[in-house]
# Entry
Amino acid sequence: MSIERIVKELSAVAANPKGQLKAYKEAGKKCIGVMPYYAPEELVYAAGMVPFGMWGSNRKTISQAKEYCATFYCTIAQLDLEMLLDGTMDLLDGVITPSICDTLRPMTQNIRVAMSEKLPVIFLAHPQFRRPAFGLEFCRAQYTHVKTELEKIRGCEIKDEEIAGAIKVYNKSRAARRDFVKLASEHCDVIDPIMRSAVLKAAWFMRKDEYTAKLEELNALLRAMPVCNWKGVKIVTSGIVVDNPTLLKVLKDNHVAIAADDVAHESRAFRVDASEEGDPMMALCQQFADQDFDVLLYDEESEKNRRGEFVANLVKESGAQGLVLFMQQFCDPEEMEYPYLKKALDAAGIPFIKLGVDQQMRDFGQAATAIQAFADVLAMQ
Ligand code: SF4
# Structure
């Protein structure tokens, strides 16, 4: 298959999660909605079900969810509930609701109240202290709860060897996505920001073995091509979700390529693998403990600004000339972290801009002007 064909297929999946859900259901698969962040999707896969990422929607307007949410909830959380209420996600067999930020915590209960008569709502609380033994133990208890609830939906036990098998499939998929991120930068003349986003987004709506097979084929085709001599500028993107095609087209139109990302919906979700040795449930807990450099995770050494420096190094090591921070409106974790990120970027002499975005944004005029000006500044350096 050609690069164009694979990208087109994955883009079609990314653009139509509802159709993808319907197709899996017609094929006899059970599907589980997985809200952000860090849910152990491997357990869903091990149960023979399809995990469905729920990261809001760029095409919907918040209406019914307003009945349940304060207006200062971010649009991602509100639109997840909207899609549950308006029937978009009616075919789901359950939903996992992590509670890692101050919006998601109450949202888990809003969803439980709104939906629990319609579908199982599986609550998940990650440990704040994720590395000490007591944190791992807490995580294991939580993951066991998720497993038990999935077993009720499945109708039988999820065996350790099934979880171990799922970990292998997911590690392979994470490695392929990390490869793709590098290859997309090396071949940014072929893979523009809209394509890059769609290819990575499709992973949230496909069984990971099917997705990885397609992505590995795409990676092989890209690897066989000479590295491009890019004449435009390169940036690192940072934020929660950067998948709006209209916004990404602004980057493309201004010859801005993405060298790497620090985006929760993209690389932050596949940086860390789980061990393929030993107890597979503990391997998933340890994988969460090993996550790092994320605004959503507690950092015992926060005074060192390790995350800010990590992002600054990512810009340097990826060969980008600057960073664009796509800040979700009403996202407390990102807003509170911003001064520290700014400090690290300033100290490293890295140019950057911050754009306020949300998923109900329909007018991109201001963002387009800012990106165009930023691209011009970077091009002159
Ligand atoms: S965008 Fe921010 S506030 Fe909203 S769910 Fe994510 S971390 Fe929480």
About this structure: DSSP finds 14 helices and eight strands in the chain. Residues 36, 74, 76-77, 101, 103-104, 240, 296, 328, 331-334 surround iron/sulfur cluster (CB under 6 Å). Residues 160-186 form the longest helix (27 residues).
